[in-house]
Amino acid sequence: MGLELYLDLLSQPCRAVYIFAKKNGIPLELRTVELLKGQHLSDAFAQVNPLKKVPTLKDGDFTLTESVAILLYLTRKYKVPDHWYPQDLQARARVDEYLAWQHTTLRRSCLRTLWHKTMFPDFLGEPVSPKTLAATLAELDVTLQILEDKFLQNKAFLAGPHISLADLVAITELMHPVGAGCQIFEGRPKLAAWRQRVEAAVGSVLFQEAHEVILKAKNFPLPDPVLKQKLMPRVLAMIQ
Question: In terms of CB atoms within 10 Å, which of 64, 113, 194, 235 comes out highest?
Fold first, then answer.
């Protein structure tokens, strides 16, 4: 049996793994787990991943449940271009540095922005106070500035002259607030130019395909009350 990837392209880490695998011709059997229908909370999926999260990768009897670990596993299992995760010690360390930083910073800010601006009011029917939303957007702005000043600087890509896993993970995170209607690249010409380079390096068709779901976030149908009650604790824990 080949590799199986359990995913939902609503999820930013799923998008990163999906784009990486597609771009590099890595053969995967895709298994869709619809987050907004609570399929990740089912007993059946818990048999695959007890953490009840996507993406999840199965390689025979071997299972990986964290997106960064999955990306690194794929770079080592398959012969992919060196720029994704360079052999050069310091170039690789720059990718590692970004991947270590982003979990509690950019990912958190982008996720909170999506939920506070769109998913709570439009999907769950739960209002978000203007004060909470303002604080979330302010936090995102600070994090974007750090992304520019510390990681991008004056380079073409986050870790150097070529696209790497760092850029792929970053851009998929940033498309969360874009899906919520935030014009995060306006007034940030350096970041906007970087986004264009990343999209060109990935390929516009693949990039748009991977982000089709998140760009329709404002149109997701309301869940029924039972599903809403089931999802709420997980959502609240996720965006803390």
Answer: 113
